[in-house]
Amino acid sequence: MTLAVWAGAIALAVSLLSQFVIRPILVRRAVLDTPNHRSMHVTPTVRGGGIGVAVAVAAGLGTAAVWFHSLPLWIVAAVAVVNAAIGGVEDVRGLPVRARFGLQVVLGLVATWVLVVSMEASFWWIPLGIVALVAYTNIANFMDGVNGISSMHGAVVGGFYAALGIAAGLPGVAAAGLVVAGAFLGFLPWNLAKRRMFLGDVGSYLLGGSLVAVAIYAAFSGISFIALVGPVLVYVADTGTTIIARWRRGEALHEAHRSHAYQRLAAGGLGHLGATIVVTAATIATGLLGIVLASATLPLQVLAGLGIVVVLAAYLVSPRLLSRQPRL
User: Fold this and answer.
1) Which of 4, 5, 219, 302 is 20 to 30 Å apart from 169, CA to CA?
2) Tally of domains in the chain
């Protein structure tokens, strides 16, 4: 486990320090996120900081793969970096929706198939792996709209996966979770600083791809699927309910908007940091309840399941409750 901690520390250091090199390059090339009427920011902001996070994930997972002589860790690293590269192309020149979708499907198919073969898992995991990679990559992209939210999500969910790996005596899983957590935590100061940076699509695609790859690797290693799903339920619920609501209103689903629960929280008075704190707190709650649901006796499992429903419902209605509060 000491080596797993060192892998996470390497990712943290690389992520934090690499931006000193990457940010000036992005500034010179004018890689900016220009605000529009649907944006949650008001000034042009450098985007593409996810490049440094991707380098950190690759460095941390590559180091862990060498230390543990682990082919699955190399596969997890490849999935994360390739998915980030797809997002990077989208940042620089744009990709048609069908092209992005097709590339993600192929990546999910190849990655899950290789993990299934190398870890002797059931081939029934392959379609699930494809759906998970495509879905959560886009969920992470949709949810990356206020400062700090994606960095905190990567740090918290990666931390949960690391804790599950430590508890199960699986240093490879622990290392993978710590690397993802460290890499996104290292970007947080840059995202919240006065001269802030955004992850960009390269970073949000990295977030979705790395978490899915680590979760599949952990599931194949014997960790409960329910415990792995718990920390991502807030992102899934927010995106799922938003898509359904927009579809019912007849809105184009691929267009930018400000109707996510976290966006309405930020616009309703909490601001970027407040919305990030609410999402992070709800994520921690569903993550802990997911562990109870996966490991406790039946009465506690029922309570944990109800607790998850209550947390998600409270989060989804919180923007309405906030809007009804009187303001000075």
Assistant:
1) 302
2) 2
- Domain limit, last residue, from 223, 251, 276: 223
Same domain, 207 and 71: yes
Selection from 237, 227, 82, 87 nearest residue 165 by Cα: 227
Specify the residue for token string 């997972």: 61
H helix or E strand, kind and range, residue 198: strand 197-198
Residues with Cβ within 8 Å of residue 62, at least 6 apart in sequence: 74, 77
Structural element, H or E, at residue 284: helix 271-295
Pairing of strands 197-198, 32-33: unpaired
Q: What is the dihedral of CA 141, 143, 149, 153, to 10 degrees?
A: -80
pTM over 0.90: yes
32: DSSP letter: E
* Residues 246 and 196 grouped into a single domain: no
- From CA 323, how far away is CA 287, in angstroms rounded? 27
Which amino acid does the sequence have at 137?
T
Residue 93 has pLDDT above 90, yes or no: no
d(CA 21, CA 3): 27
Residue range of the domain that includes 7: 1-223
Domain termination site, one of 223, 241, 264: 223
- Supply 295's token pair: 């490991």
